Amino acid sequence: MKRKTLTQYLVERQRGGQAVTAELRLLIETVARACKAIGHTVSKGALGGVLGSLGTENVQGEIQKKLDVLSNEILLEANEWGGSLMGMASEEMETIHRIPNEYPQGGYLLLFDPLDGSSNIDVNVSIGTIFSVLRAPEAAKTRRIEEVDFLQPGTSQVAAGYAVYGPQTMLVLTVGEGVAGFTLDSETGTWTLTSEKMTIPEDTSEFAINMSNMRHWEAPVKRYIDDCLAGEAGPLAKNFNMRWIASMVADVHRIMTRGGVFMYPRDQRPTGKKGKLRLMYEANPMSFIVEQAGGMATDGERRILDTQPSALHQRVGVVLGSKNEVVRVRGYHLKGQA
Ligand code: AHM
Ligand code: MG
Fold first, then answer.
1. 3-state secondary structure of 3
2. According to the model, what pLDDT value does residue 243 have?
3. Which of 171, 201, 247, 320 could disulfide-link 182, Cβ–Cβ 3.0 to 4.6 Å?
4. What is the pLDDT of residues 60-73, one digit of tens each?
């Protein structure tokens, strides 16, 4: 069977309507090429001398791994000169990266977590890249792009995706017309369409949460997980399975494939009050993808995509996945407030 490539998929959407402009297509293809390079670098592991820490800290106070920084550089270099962007922002950079004057400026902004799941890098467990594309505001086109221009709600995203570097290297993409999955053919180097319309089953009996944080959780999360653990005899009247990979990309990819509910909730620690995951380049792109696949994404009570960001690196509680289960978790939160 002759399968479509990423380019064909995007060209079809470019011809079909407004969702993909030539500039956006070029941008997505460039990001996909960078992900291929990151995947290649990741796969070299110890042979490439890329494992281990650099000893530096990023803006979030996290120790940077060599691969965090290398992946960030790969994405910056690949996307700087193509003419689709005005600026970029990343988990690994304190502030925004403006496209240098020597290159043409485009109409879009790119945000990314260059290598998500950093704690899994050195142990050879799946990791990934997450990205989000916004339009640069009209007003910014006559002046320098500023950080505030990036602070748009997730509903403004024009495209989002993730690459997962696992047993297979895959790219999962939405341009707001459903979600498509591409597998990297390592022999030809081609992103090849392998799932034309990914959909998340509405019901599930599988949850993903870091249980070691249980003592810090807010009451609704604790109640929900207690009820899951009670199984068939409990109020949910079914047995639940649990998975936690500690790479959001890999956990979300499992949910995209067979359903489930993923939670990194706010908790009561001083460092957990706002959640762990970052809104702009982790929660927003993943929420866009999950919603486009028929799932749902909330911070416990509210839709993540409606959040008006106030800072580039702001954090948010995340509950996403199979629709009926996310509705249930939201119910526990809303009931708690009544
Ligand atoms: P990172 O972007 O620094 O890798 O952090 C985000 C990751 C997510 O991929 C994952 O869901 C979570 O952190 C795991 O956290 P924990 O180690 O607390 O379970
Ligand atoms: Mg991350």
1. coil
2. 98
3. 171
4. 777 788 899 999 99
- Ligand 2 centre and the CA of 208: distance in Å? 16
- Tell me how far apart the alpha carbons of residues 280 and 283 are, in angstroms, rounded to a whole number: 6
Residues with CB under 6 A from ligand 1: 62, 91, 113, 116-119, 210, 246-248, 264
Q: Which atom belonging to ligand 1 lies closest to the Cα atom of 120?
A: 4
Taking 70 as the pLDDT cut, the residues of the chain under it are 336-338
Taking CA atoms only, the protein residue closest to ligand 1 atom 19 is 246
Dist. CA 111–CA 217, nearest whole Å: 29
Domain 6-195 listed as CATH 2.60.40.1180: no
Q: Which of 118, 121, 207, 245 to mutate to test the pocket of ligand 1 (most atoms within 8 A of CB)?
A: 118
Q: What are phi and psi of 101, to 5 degrees?
A: -60, -30
**Range(s) of the chain covered by CATH 3.40.190.80:** 206-337
Say how far apart CA 53 and CA 38 lie, in whole Å: 17
Q: Which amino acid is at 103?
A: Y
What pLDDT is stored for residue 296 in this prediction? 98
CATH class of 206-337: alpha beta
Q: Which residues of 111-133 are buried (b: 16+ CB within 10 A; e: fewer)?
A: bbbbbbbbebbbeeebbbbbbbb
> Which token pair is 311?
């800072």
- CA-to-CA distance for 31 and 274, rounded, in angstroms? 29
